[in-house]
Write a structure and sequence with these properties.
Blueprint: H1 2-18, H2 21-42, H3 126-141, H4 146-162, E1 170-172, E2 175-176, E3 184-186, E4 189-193, H5 194-201, E5 203-207, E6 214-219, E7 228-233, E8 239-241, E9 244-246, E10 253-255, E11 258-262, H6 263-269, E12 273-277, E13 282-286, E14 297-298
Parallel strand pairs: 1-13
Antiparallel strand pairs: 1-2, 3-4, 4-11, 5-6, 6-7, 7-8, 8-9, 9-14, 10-11, 12-13
Helix pairs in contact: 1-2, 3-4
């Protein structure tokens, strides 16, 4: 009997170990029954008690087998989301706009430019020439009167312009000079051909054969007095008067094969008196008031000892 109880107890323990807590309450009744049976078995039997009818052996309730809890299925590792490669945008090349062709211009046939017709020079009439000559006589007679000669010169200039002569009037001692090359103005200075000027002053022009760039203008004076020698270098513009340096404000130039020199400088170097009339742009040159020259700087004359040869036929 004890073996049976022990066996039942073991089975109960095993069942407890294998069953969950949810089945434990169900077995409490069985345990109570087993405990009661055990108590009766261990109790001292009453004397002379008839043997009890053995109780039927209880059939043990089969313990239901619990299915093992399945292991949790690990969550699948998410695959990295790969962004789709961006589709490159097509490269659009900039295209130049097609220029709309311009309509062909109708070109006019080239025309030959009309030739420039220069006005024909004015040919003075005989009557005009007579009036000019008469006015020049009046001017010479009025040379001593500065006011009168200016008025006469204005009338003379008007007659000359009407006859086609617009050159600058140069009056020496009342006589209007004649030039094959008209006087010009450079840097505010009036330039005239040197030979015409020398002739008006009673001087001579000589060219140095050894030094062609040097020209000498000589004016004879009264007996017993030293002649005035005007030496000029046409290349450098150096001018001397009797070996004394003279300041030449405007260098000589060559125009139409004539050497043009500043009239005021040379006239005053020869001791002449020069007056300028702004109304007519005329120049009055009067008789020398003195034959002396104020030297600026004494310099040696490089051509003073060279032979001076007169070449009246040479262009100057």
């Amino acid at each position: 009997m004890r073996k049976l109880l022990s066996l039942l107890l073991v089975m109960v323990v095993v069942s407890i170990a294998t069953l969950g807590f949810s089945e434990l309450n169900k077995l409490n009744v069985g345990l109570d029954v087993v405990s009661a049976a055990t108590a009766k078995a261990t109790a001292t039997p009453a004397p002379a008690a008839p043997a009890p009818t053995p109780a039927p052996t209880p059939v043990p309730t089969p313990v239901p087998t619990l299915a093992p809890t399945p292991a949790p299925t690990p969550a699948p590792t998410p695959k990295p989301v790969v962004a789709p490669a961006a589709t490159p945008k097509p490269v659009v090349k900039a295209t130049k706009p097609v220029a709309t062709p311009k309509p062909a211009l109708t070109t006019k046939p080239a025309t030959t430019p009309a030739p420039v017709v220069k006005p024909a020079p004015i040919v003075p009439t005989k009557e005009q020439l007579q009036k000019i000559a008469a006015m020049e006589v009046l001017l010479k007679n009025a040379n001593g009167d500065k006011v009168a000669r200016v008025g006469i010169l204005k009338q003379l200039v008007a007659l000359r312009v009407a006859a086609g002569d617009v050159s600058i009037p140069i009056v020496v001692n009342g006589t209007v000079l004649k030039f094959d090359v008209a006087p010009i103005v450079r840097s505010g200075r009036t330039l005239i051909p040197i030979r015409a000027m020398a002739a008006a002053f009673g001087a001579t022009v000589d060219w140095n054969a050894q030094n062609p760039e040097w020209v000498t203008v000589t004016k004879a004076v009264k007996a017993g007095e030293q002649s005035l020698v005007f030496l000029m270098n046409l290349k450098t513009g150096v001018v001397t008067m009797n070996n004394m340096l003279v300041d030449l404000e405007v260098k000589p130039i060559v125009l139409l094969h004539r050497t043009m020199v500043p009239i005021r400088l040379i006239s005053e170097a020869f001791g002449m008196k020069v007056d300028y009339d702004p109304a007519t742009k005329g120049v009055f040159i009067d008789t020398p008031i003195k034959e002396t020259v104020t030297p600026v700087t004494a310099v040696p004359n490089p051509a003073a000892q060279s032979a001076v040869q007169s070449v009246d036929g040479q262009d100057d």
